[in-house]
Amino acid sequence: MNGELAEVASLTAEIDATSHVGRRNRLMQQRRRVFDAIDANPERLALLRALLAHAQLEVRVAAAWHCGWRQVAPEEAERAMTELAERPGGIGLDARHWLESRARMAAYRGQAPAPKTLSYDPAPAGCSRAAAMKLIARAFATERARALAPLLRRAIHLWPRARGDDPRASCFGGLPALPPGYAWPVFEDEPLLFLGQVNCADLHAAVGANPLPKRGLLQFYGDHDEVNGGGPMESGVALFFPDPDALQPAPAPIRDFLELPRCGLDFHRTVELPDPASDVVADLRLSPVEQDDYRKLRSELGPPGGGRRDEFGSKLLGWPNLIQRDLGDDCGEPRAGEALLLQIGWYHDGARWQDWGPGGLVYFILNERALAKARFDLAAMEMQCS
After folding, report:
1. At 320, phi and psi to the nearest 5?
2. Is 158:314 a contact under the CB 8 Å cutoff?
3. Each residue of 27-64: pLDDT tens digit?
4. Cα separations (Å) of 311 from 302, 314, 348, 376, 384?
5. Which of 33, 78, 19 is nearest to 256 (CA)?
6. How would residue 117 be classed by pLDDT, with cut points 50, 70 and 90?
7. E strands along 300-356, which residues?
8. Of 331, 342, 337, 344, which is closest to residue 370 (Cα–Cα)?
């Protein structure tokens, strides 16, 4: 009994001292397992009552949440939280939140969650450069059209589809394939999330010639808090493995590692114009009428996404969809010559959604010279959200 009480107290203290949300979530999962062990203990009620009266106030709050979820010792939990609700600061706020949520939890009790069945729409057709030139000529007078034509960039849109069994296939989420014994990338001692990978051979087979190598596996990792809008920390890592056949399915780096939903990826080629909010477009000094025409033109060209919930917004290369600012200006330190390597929007695996902060996108940027030399280790990650 004392061992379980001490473990709950120790984990609660560690949770309270941790600001990193991803690490906190992982520690909370560990504490949840201790509570699950308490549920299986013949002294369950005695243990929970001891936790609800624990000298460490945060432990009382954690025990009350467990009691509410498991529907056990409700009177003791309510008494403990009613007493704590009178206290100032975070403890009182947590206790009041518990009391307010208890009625909502009761309303949902006994209702089975509706199963989620999500489907993948067909990938949209891309736009050729010739078709884009015709759209530009139709939308703008000759002089303005000549200024827009050089801004067209080729892009490769990434369209989610059902996952396959090949661990080296292009995908978002899941777990990667790595060389045996390869050290999982970390940031401040926390394993980075695996965001996805691109199989370059599959990419070339689907879209033909492009700036990425003809063979190899390109992988992307990022810190939990940064990809969820927790601030610019430059945690992203891009890895490139020239020989996918030498890779093996990698296990999770630690217990309770957050494995993101996994989906496969289709590729289709298109061309794009810059985001209307970019400095490139601002330098054109479009009139208000021309700005409206430009937005309509860009909508006709594509791309899908741009942070909206009703469309996917993932791509390789091309122009980024901007939510806050131009890429490379993070923390007020512009990175000259950087271009978009990867943009990841929201996606699903057929049952679970994955998005980034409130209406966010995750980007990897890379200097074009580094791209030509396959120096993906020089890529930098950014995240923007609304």
Report:
1. -70, 150
2. yes
3. 888 888 888 888 877 877 887 888 888 888 888 888 88
4. 11, 10, 12, 28, 17
5. 33
6. low
7. 314-317, 338-344, 347-348, 353-354
8. 337
Residue 308 pLDDT exceeds 50: no
| pTM as predicted | 0.80
What are 334-361's pLDDT values in tens digits?
Answer: 455 688 999 999 888 888 888 887 788 9
Give the Cα separation of 317 and 153 in Å (integer).
Answer: 8
DSSP structural state of residue 260: P
Q: What sign results for the dihedral spanned by CA atoms 164, 168, 174, 180? A: positive
Strand partners, 367: 338
Type of residue at 194: F
Domain definitions of the chain by residue range: 2-108, 129-384
Q: What is the mean pLDDT of residues 303-331?
A: 70
CB atoms within 10 A of CB 106: 12
Instruction: Tell me the H-state helices in the chain.
Output: 2-16, 21-39, 44-52, 57-70, 74-84, 89-108, 129-139, 142-148, 200-207, 224-227, 279-282, 288-301, 368-372
**pLDDT band, very low/low/confident/very high, at 133 (cuts 50, 70, 90):** very high
Q: Per-residue pLDDT for 309 more than 50?
A: no
For the domain bounded by 129-384, which CATH number is listed? Answer: 2.30.320.10
Instruction: For residue 76, give the 3-state DSSP assignment.
Output: helix
Asked whether the beta carbons of 345 and 361 are under 8 A apart, the reply is: yes
> Dihedral angle at the C-alpha atoms of 274, 375, 161, 26, nearest 10 degrees?
-110
pLDDT at 307: 36
Contacts of 258 (CB under 8 A, 6+ apart): 22, 25, 26, 193, 224
Residues 112, 296: Cα–Cα separation, whole Å? 44
Residue 294 CA to residue 311 CA, distance in Å, equals 20
Taking 50 as the threshold, does the pLDDT of residue 314 lie above it? Answer: yes
Q: List, in order, residues 6 or more apart from 196 with CB less than 8 Å away.
A: 170, 171, 172, 173, 219, 220, 265, 344
Contacts of 206 by beta carbon, 8 Å cutoff, 6+ apart: 266, 267, 268
**Any idea which of 97-106, 182-191, 255-264 has the lowest mean pLDDT?**
97-106
